Protein backbone atom coordinates (compact mmCIF):
# COMPACT_ATOMS: atom_id res chain seq x y z
CA UNK A 1 0.00 0.00 0.00
CA UNK A 2 2.68 2.57 0.85
CA UNK A 3 4.40 1.76 -2.45
CA UNK A 4 1.17 2.38 -4.37
CA UNK A 5 0.68 5.68 -2.58
CA UNK A 6 4.26 6.64 -3.33
CA UNK A 7 3.85 5.80 -7.02
CA UNK A 8 0.60 7.80 -7.13
CA UNK A 9 2.28 10.78 -5.49
CA UNK A 10 5.20 10.61 -7.94
CA UNK A 11 2.76 10.39 -10.86
CA UNK A 12 0.84 13.44 -9.66
CA UNK A 13 4.10 15.31 -9.12
CA UNK A 14 5.27 14.44 -12.61
CA UNK A 15 1.97 15.51 -14.19
CA UNK A 16 2.05 18.82 -12.28
CA UNK A 17 5.63 19.50 -13.33
CA UNK A 18 4.85 18.56 -16.94
CA UNK A 19 1.77 20.78 -16.95
CA UNK A 20 3.73 23.73 -15.53
CA UNK A 21 6.47 23.23 -18.13
CA UNK A 22 3.84 23.13 -20.86
CA UNK A 23 2.29 26.39 -19.61
CA UNK A 24 5.67 28.10 -19.47
CA UNK A 25 6.41 26.95 -23.01
CA UNK A 26 3.11 28.38 -24.26
CA UNK A 27 3.76 31.70 -22.51
CA UNK A 28 7.30 31.87 -23.92
CA UNK A 29 5.92 31.28 -27.41
CA UNK A 30 3.51 34.15 -26.88
CA UNK A 31 6.36 36.35 -25.70
CA UNK A 32 7.98 35.95 -29.11
CA UNK A 33 5.11 37.56 -31.01
CA UNK A 34 3.44 40.13 -28.72
CA UNK A 35 4.04 43.86 -29.19
CA UNK A 36 4.76 45.72 -25.92
CA UNK A 37 2.71 48.75 -24.97
CA UNK A 38 5.25 51.25 -23.67
CA UNK A 39 2.77 54.01 -22.88
CA UNK A 40 -0.98 54.56 -22.56
CA UNK A 41 -0.64 58.34 -22.56
CA UNK A 42 -2.43 59.87 -25.57
CA UNK A 43 0.07 62.75 -25.53
CA UNK A 44 3.10 60.52 -26.18
CA UNK A 45 4.49 59.69 -29.62
CA UNK A 46 3.22 56.69 -31.57
CA UNK A 47 6.47 54.72 -31.74
CA UNK A 48 5.09 51.60 -30.05
CA UNK A 49 1.95 51.44 -32.22
CA UNK A 50 3.25 52.68 -35.54
CA UNK A 51 3.17 49.09 -36.82
CA UNK A 52 -0.62 49.50 -36.92
CA UNK A 53 -0.28 51.46 -40.15
CA UNK A 54 0.71 48.23 -41.87
CA UNK A 55 -1.79 46.04 -40.03
CA UNK A 56 -4.71 48.37 -40.78
CA UNK A 57 -3.80 49.45 -44.30
CA UNK A 58 -6.61 47.49 -45.98
CA UNK A 59 -9.30 48.28 -43.42
CA UNK A 60 -11.94 50.99 -43.72
CA UNK A 61 -14.16 50.20 -40.71
CA UNK A 62 -12.26 49.61 -37.47
CA UNK A 63 -14.09 48.26 -34.45
CA UNK A 64 -12.47 49.09 -31.11
CA UNK A 65 -14.07 46.94 -28.45
CA UNK A 66 -13.89 46.85 -24.69
CA UNK A 67 -14.49 43.89 -22.41
CA UNK A 68 -16.26 46.16 -19.90
CA UNK A 69 -17.77 49.63 -20.06
CA UNK A 70 -16.20 50.58 -16.72
CA UNK A 71 -12.44 50.15 -17.10
CA UNK A 72 -10.57 53.45 -16.85
CA UNK A 73 -7.43 52.32 -18.68
CA UNK A 74 -9.53 51.33 -21.70
CA UNK A 75 -10.84 54.88 -21.94
CA UNK A 76 -7.33 56.31 -21.77
CA UNK A 77 -5.88 53.90 -24.31
CA UNK A 78 -8.83 54.32 -26.66
CA UNK A 79 -7.97 58.03 -26.79
CA UNK A 80 -4.47 57.08 -27.90
CA UNK A 81 -5.77 54.78 -30.64
CA UNK A 82 -8.27 57.38 -31.85
CA UNK A 83 -5.58 60.05 -32.07
CA UNK A 84 -3.39 57.67 -34.05
CA UNK A 85 -6.20 56.81 -36.48
CA UNK A 86 -7.15 60.47 -36.91
CA UNK A 87 -3.63 61.84 -37.31
CA UNK A 88 -1.86 58.99 -39.07
CA UNK A 89 -4.61 57.22 -41.02
CA UNK A 90 -7.03 60.03 -41.85
CA UNK A 91 -10.14 58.73 -40.08
CA UNK A 92 -12.83 61.41 -39.70
CA UNK A 93 -15.85 59.50 -38.35
CA UNK A 94 -16.18 58.10 -34.81
CA UNK A 95 -19.35 56.05 -34.26
CA UNK A 96 -20.14 55.34 -30.64
CA UNK A 97 -22.34 52.72 -28.99
CA UNK A 98 -24.38 55.54 -27.55
CA UNK A 99 -27.38 57.75 -28.00
CA UNK A 100 -27.61 59.52 -31.37
CA UNK A 101 -29.14 62.67 -29.89
CA UNK A 102 -26.50 63.00 -27.17
CA UNK A 103 -23.76 62.42 -29.74
CA UNK A 104 -25.14 65.32 -31.80
CA UNK A 105 -24.39 67.68 -28.90
CA UNK A 106 -20.89 66.24 -28.48
CA UNK A 107 -20.26 66.60 -32.21
CA UNK A 108 -21.39 70.22 -32.08
CA UNK A 109 -18.93 70.77 -29.22
CA UNK A 110 -15.89 69.29 -30.99
CA UNK A 111 -16.78 71.30 -34.10
CA UNK A 112 -16.89 74.57 -32.15
CA UNK A 113 -20.62 75.07 -32.73
CA UNK A 114 -21.44 75.14 -29.00
CA UNK A 115 -19.57 75.55 -25.74
CA UNK A 116 -22.03 73.37 -23.83
CA UNK A 117 -21.69 69.67 -23.11
CA UNK A 118 -25.04 69.29 -21.40
CA UNK A 119 -26.35 65.95 -22.61
CA UNK A 120 -29.99 65.39 -23.53
CA UNK A 121 -31.89 63.44 -20.90
CA UNK A 122 -28.68 62.76 -19.01
CA UNK A 123 -27.87 59.97 -21.50
CA UNK A 124 -24.14 59.74 -21.95
CA UNK A 125 -22.43 57.88 -24.77
CA UNK A 126 -19.05 56.20 -24.35
CA UNK A 127 -17.10 59.16 -25.71
CA UNK A 128 -17.57 61.63 -22.86
CA UNK A 129 -13.97 62.14 -21.77
CA UNK A 130 -13.66 65.92 -21.61
CA UNK A 131 -9.91 65.93 -22.22
CA UNK A 132 -10.28 63.94 -25.40
CA UNK A 133 -13.21 66.02 -26.61
CA UNK A 134 -11.13 69.16 -26.08
CA UNK A 135 -8.33 67.60 -28.14
CA UNK A 136 -10.77 66.86 -30.98
CA UNK A 137 -12.17 70.38 -30.68
CA UNK A 138 -8.67 71.87 -31.02
CA UNK A 139 -7.88 69.49 -33.89
CA UNK A 140 -10.98 70.58 -35.80
CA UNK A 141 -10.51 74.28 -35.23
CA UNK A 142 -9.81 76.23 -38.43
CA UNK A 143 -10.04 73.08 -40.57
CA UNK A 144 -12.36 72.97 -43.60
CA UNK A 145 -15.43 70.76 -43.19
CA UNK A 146 -14.02 67.84 -45.21
CA UNK A 147 -11.04 67.58 -42.85
CA UNK A 148 -12.99 67.69 -39.59
CA UNK A 149 -13.64 64.76 -37.27
CA UNK A 150 -17.27 64.00 -36.40
CA UNK A 151 -18.79 61.90 -33.60
CA UNK A 152 -22.01 59.95 -34.12
CA UNK A 153 -24.21 57.75 -31.97
CA UNK A 154 -25.45 54.46 -33.40
CA UNK A 155 -28.79 54.04 -31.61
CA UNK A 156 -31.63 55.83 -29.83
CA UNK A 157 -31.63 55.16 -26.08
CA UNK A 158 -35.04 55.62 -24.58
CA UNK A 159 -37.91 57.84 -25.71
CA UNK A 160 -37.10 61.11 -23.96
CA UNK A 161 -34.51 62.48 -26.37
CA UNK A 162 -36.09 61.45 -29.64
CA UNK A 163 -39.60 62.65 -28.74
CA UNK A 164 -38.33 66.01 -27.56
CA UNK A 165 -36.28 66.41 -30.71
CA UNK A 166 -39.35 65.80 -32.86
CA UNK A 167 -41.24 68.34 -30.75
CA UNK A 168 -38.70 70.93 -31.91
CA UNK A 169 -40.33 70.98 -35.33
CA UNK A 170 -43.75 69.33 -34.91
CA UNK A 171 -46.78 70.50 -32.93
CA UNK A 172 -48.54 67.51 -31.36
CA UNK A 173 -52.22 67.54 -30.39
CA UNK A 174 -53.15 67.60 -26.68
CA UNK A 175 -54.29 63.97 -26.94
CA UNK A 176 -50.97 62.95 -28.53
CA UNK A 177 -49.07 64.74 -25.77
CA UNK A 178 -50.89 62.69 -23.14
CA UNK A 179 -49.60 59.53 -24.82
CA UNK A 180 -46.10 60.88 -25.33
CA UNK A 181 -45.82 62.02 -21.71
CA UNK A 182 -46.09 58.41 -20.58
CA UNK A 183 -43.17 57.48 -22.82
CA UNK A 184 -40.94 60.43 -21.93
CA UNK A 185 -41.41 60.00 -18.18
CA UNK A 186 -39.59 57.36 -16.15
CA UNK A 187 -40.76 54.19 -17.88
CA UNK A 188 -38.40 51.99 -15.87
CA UNK A 189 -36.07 49.15 -16.84
CA UNK A 190 -37.58 47.06 -19.61
CA UNK A 191 -40.46 49.55 -20.03
CA UNK A 192 -42.47 47.51 -17.52
CA UNK A 193 -45.15 50.12 -16.85
CA UNK A 194 -46.09 50.38 -20.52
CA UNK A 195 -49.02 48.35 -21.82
CA UNK A 196 -49.60 47.05 -25.34
CA UNK A 197 -52.26 49.73 -25.76
CA UNK A 198 -49.63 52.39 -25.06
CA UNK A 199 -47.50 51.06 -27.88
CA UNK A 200 -50.47 50.96 -30.23
CA UNK A 201 -51.11 54.61 -29.38
CA UNK A 202 -47.55 55.76 -30.06
CA UNK A 203 -47.45 53.71 -33.29
CA UNK A 204 -50.57 55.56 -34.39
CA UNK A 205 -48.85 58.89 -33.66
CA UNK A 206 -45.80 57.81 -35.69
CA UNK A 207 -48.05 56.83 -38.61
CA UNK A 208 -49.66 60.28 -38.59
CA UNK A 209 -46.19 61.84 -38.57
CA UNK A 210 -45.20 59.71 -41.54
CA UNK A 211 -48.17 60.98 -43.56
CA UNK A 212 -47.03 64.56 -42.98
CA UNK A 213 -43.25 64.05 -43.15
CA UNK A 214 -42.22 67.01 -45.30
CA UNK A 215 -39.67 68.60 -42.98
CA UNK A 216 -36.12 67.27 -43.71
CA UNK A 217 -35.69 66.71 -39.97
CA UNK A 218 -38.66 64.37 -40.04
CA UNK A 219 -36.89 62.11 -42.52
CA UNK A 220 -34.00 61.88 -40.06
CA UNK A 221 -35.77 61.49 -36.74
CA UNK A 222 -39.03 59.67 -37.49
CA UNK A 223 -37.21 56.45 -38.55
CA UNK A 224 -35.27 56.63 -35.28
CA UNK A 225 -38.50 56.93 -33.29
CA UNK A 226 -39.85 53.88 -35.10
CA UNK A 227 -36.68 51.97 -34.27
CA UNK A 228 -37.08 52.78 -30.60
CA UNK A 229 -40.78 51.81 -30.60
CA UNK A 230 -39.93 48.43 -32.16
CA UNK A 231 -37.03 47.73 -29.81
CA UNK A 232 -38.90 48.82 -26.66
CA UNK A 233 -41.95 46.73 -27.56
CA UNK A 234 -39.82 43.63 -28.03
CA UNK A 235 -38.01 44.29 -24.77
CA UNK A 236 -41.33 44.60 -22.97
CA UNK A 237 -43.37 41.82 -24.54
CA UNK A 238 -41.22 39.61 -26.72
CA UNK A 239 -37.81 38.20 -27.35
CA UNK A 240 -34.96 38.99 -29.67
CA UNK A 241 -34.18 42.41 -28.22
CA UNK A 242 -30.44 41.94 -28.80
CA UNK A 243 -30.95 41.03 -32.46
CA UNK A 244 -33.26 44.00 -32.99
CA UNK A 245 -30.95 46.43 -31.20
CA UNK A 246 -27.80 45.32 -33.04
CA UNK A 247 -29.71 45.21 -36.32
CA UNK A 248 -30.64 48.86 -35.96
CA UNK A 249 -27.11 49.79 -34.80
CA UNK A 250 -25.81 48.14 -37.97
CA UNK A 251 -28.31 49.97 -40.17
CA UNK A 252 -27.41 53.33 -38.63
CA UNK A 253 -23.66 52.63 -38.70
CA UNK A 254 -23.77 51.59 -42.35
CA UNK A 255 -25.56 54.83 -43.28
CA UNK A 256 -22.95 56.91 -41.43
CA UNK A 257 -20.03 55.09 -43.07
CA UNK A 258 -21.58 55.59 -46.53
CA UNK A 259 -21.55 59.35 -45.97
CA UNK A 260 -18.16 59.59 -44.26
CA UNK A 261 -14.82 60.66 -45.70
CA UNK A 262 -13.45 57.81 -47.86
CA UNK A 263 -16.20 55.59 -46.35
CA UNK A 264 -13.98 55.10 -43.30
CA UNK A 265 -15.06 55.00 -39.67
CA UNK A 266 -14.04 54.01 -36.14
CA UNK A 267 -16.73 52.00 -34.32
CA UNK A 268 -16.64 52.02 -30.51
CA UNK A 269 -18.61 49.36 -28.61
CA UNK A 270 -18.37 46.37 -26.27
CA UNK A 271 -16.27 43.42 -27.44
CA UNK A 272 -19.48 41.41 -27.74
CA UNK A 273 -21.01 43.93 -30.12
CA UNK A 274 -17.99 44.28 -32.43
CA UNK A 275 -17.00 40.59 -32.58
CA UNK A 276 -17.28 39.05 -36.03
CA UNK A 277 -19.37 35.97 -35.24
CA UNK A 278 -22.76 35.68 -33.58
CA UNK A 279 -22.91 36.54 -29.89
CA UNK A 280 -24.09 33.12 -28.79
CA UNK A 281 -27.04 32.63 -31.14
CA UNK A 282 -27.60 36.36 -31.58
CA UNK A 283 -26.58 38.43 -34.61
CA UNK A 284 -24.17 41.01 -33.23
CA UNK A 285 -23.37 44.38 -34.78
CA UNK A 286 -19.91 43.02 -35.63
CA UNK A 287 -21.37 39.91 -37.25
CA UNK A 288 -23.42 42.13 -39.55
CA UNK A 289 -20.53 44.53 -40.22
CA UNK A 290 -18.22 41.63 -41.04
CA UNK A 291 -20.71 40.09 -43.47
CA UNK A 292 -21.16 43.45 -45.21
CA UNK A 293 -17.62 44.90 -45.24
CA UNK A 294 -15.79 41.57 -45.24
CA UNK A 295 -11.97 42.06 -45.11
CA UNK A 296 -12.44 45.83 -44.82
CA UNK A 297 -13.71 45.29 -41.27
CA UNK A 298 -10.97 45.05 -38.62
CA UNK A 299 -11.57 44.44 -34.91
CA UNK A 300 -9.34 45.45 -32.00
CA UNK A 301 -10.60 43.95 -28.73
CA UNK A 302 -9.42 44.88 -25.23
CA UNK A 303 -8.89 42.56 -22.28
CA UNK A 304 -7.33 42.56 -18.80
CA UNK A 305 -6.15 40.18 -16.11
CA UNK A 306 -6.90 41.75 -12.73
CA UNK A 307 -8.03 45.05 -11.25
CA UNK A 308 -10.95 47.30 -10.51
CA UNK A 309 -13.97 47.82 -12.77
CA UNK A 310 -16.94 50.14 -12.36
CA UNK A 311 -20.19 48.18 -12.67
CA UNK A 312 -23.87 49.02 -12.27
CA UNK A 313 -25.49 47.64 -9.14
CA UNK A 314 -29.12 46.72 -9.80
CA UNK A 315 -30.14 46.92 -6.13
CA UNK A 316 -28.78 50.37 -5.36
CA UNK A 317 -29.36 51.63 -8.93
CA UNK A 318 -25.90 53.16 -8.79
CA UNK A 319 -22.38 52.49 -10.06
CA UNK A 320 -19.93 50.69 -7.79
CA UNK A 321 -16.32 49.56 -7.97
CA UNK A 322 -15.72 45.81 -8.20
CA UNK A 323 -12.33 44.11 -7.99
CA UNK A 324 -11.35 41.06 -10.06
CA UNK A 325 -8.41 38.85 -9.06
CA UNK A 326 -6.03 37.36 -11.61
CA UNK A 327 -7.58 34.60 -13.73
CA UNK A 328 -6.78 31.07 -12.52
CA UNK A 329 -8.65 29.09 -15.17
CA UNK A 330 -6.16 27.59 -17.62
CA UNK A 331 -8.95 27.36 -20.21
CA UNK A 332 -9.14 31.15 -20.33
CA UNK A 333 -6.94 33.29 -22.55
CA UNK A 334 -6.20 35.73 -19.72
CA UNK A 335 -4.51 32.94 -17.77
CA UNK A 336 -1.71 32.93 -20.36
CA UNK A 337 -1.72 36.63 -21.16
CA UNK A 338 -1.15 37.68 -17.54
CA UNK A 339 2.02 35.56 -17.38
CA UNK A 340 3.65 37.16 -20.43
CA UNK A 341 6.85 39.17 -20.00
CA UNK A 342 5.20 42.47 -20.90
CA UNK A 343 2.48 43.63 -18.49
CA UNK A 344 0.64 45.39 -21.34
CA UNK A 345 0.81 44.37 -24.97
CA UNK A 346 -0.91 43.99 -28.32
CA UNK A 347 -1.36 40.55 -29.85
CA UNK A 348 -1.82 40.39 -33.61
CA UNK A 349 -4.15 37.43 -34.12
CA UNK A 350 -2.74 36.78 -37.60
CA UNK A 351 0.74 36.33 -36.11
CA UNK A 352 -0.58 33.92 -33.48
CA UNK A 353 -2.59 31.94 -36.01
CA UNK A 354 0.31 31.55 -38.44
CA UNK A 355 2.65 30.31 -35.70
CA UNK A 356 2.15 26.56 -34.96
CA UNK A 357 3.27 27.15 -31.36
CA UNK A 358 0.63 29.80 -30.61
CA UNK A 359 -2.15 28.79 -33.00
CA UNK A 360 -3.82 26.75 -30.23
CA UNK A 361 -4.66 29.91 -28.31
CA UNK A 362 -6.57 31.66 -31.10
CA UNK A 363 -7.84 28.79 -33.29
CA UNK A 364 -9.39 26.66 -30.54
CA UNK A 365 -12.37 27.64 -28.43
CA UNK A 366 -11.25 29.52 -25.33
CA UNK A 367 -12.83 31.64 -22.63
CA UNK A 368 -12.42 35.39 -22.22
CA UNK A 369 -13.30 35.77 -18.55
CA UNK A 370 -13.02 39.55 -18.53
CA UNK A 371 -15.78 39.96 -21.08
CA UNK A 372 -18.66 41.12 -18.91
CA UNK A 373 -21.87 43.08 -19.02
CA UNK A 374 -22.58 46.45 -17.43
CA UNK A 375 -23.43 44.76 -14.12
CA UNK A 376 -20.16 42.84 -13.94
CA UNK A 377 -21.61 39.48 -14.97
CA UNK A 378 -18.88 37.47 -16.68
CA UNK A 379 -19.69 36.18 -20.17
CA UNK A 380 -17.90 32.83 -20.15
CA UNK A 381 -19.00 31.39 -23.49
CA UNK A 382 -15.93 29.89 -25.22
CA UNK A 383 -15.10 31.55 -28.54
CA UNK A 384 -12.44 31.26 -31.21
CA UNK A 385 -10.41 34.45 -31.03
CA UNK A 386 -9.28 34.08 -34.64
CA UNK A 387 -12.90 34.10 -35.85
CA UNK A 388 -13.81 37.24 -33.93
CA UNK A 389 -10.88 39.61 -33.45
CA UNK A 390 -7.88 40.78 -35.46
CA UNK A 391 -5.98 42.18 -32.47
CA UNK A 392 -6.22 42.06 -28.71
CA UNK A 393 -4.96 44.85 -26.47
CA UNK A 394 -4.19 43.37 -23.04
CA UNK A 395 -3.53 45.01 -19.67
CA UNK A 396 -2.28 42.84 -16.83
CA UNK A 397 -3.84 45.14 -14.25
CA UNK A 398 -6.40 47.88 -14.75
CA UNK A 399 -5.21 49.80 -11.68
CA UNK A 400 -2.45 51.58 -13.53
CA UNK A 401 -0.89 54.73 -12.15
TrEMBL record:
<feature type="signal peptide">
    <location>
        <begin position="1"/>
        <end position="19"/>
    </location>
</feature>
<keyword id="KW-0732">Signal</keyword>
<dbReference type="Pfam" id="PF05139">
    <property type="entry name" value="Erythro_esteras"/>
</dbReference>
<dbReference type="InterPro" id="IPR052036">
    <property type="entry name" value="Hydrolase/PRTase-associated"/>
</dbReference>
<dbReference type="InterPro" id="IPR007815">
    <property type="entry name" value="Emycin_Estase"/>
</dbReference>
<protein>
    <submittedName>
        <fullName>Erythromycin esterase family protein</fullName>
    </submittedName>
</protein>
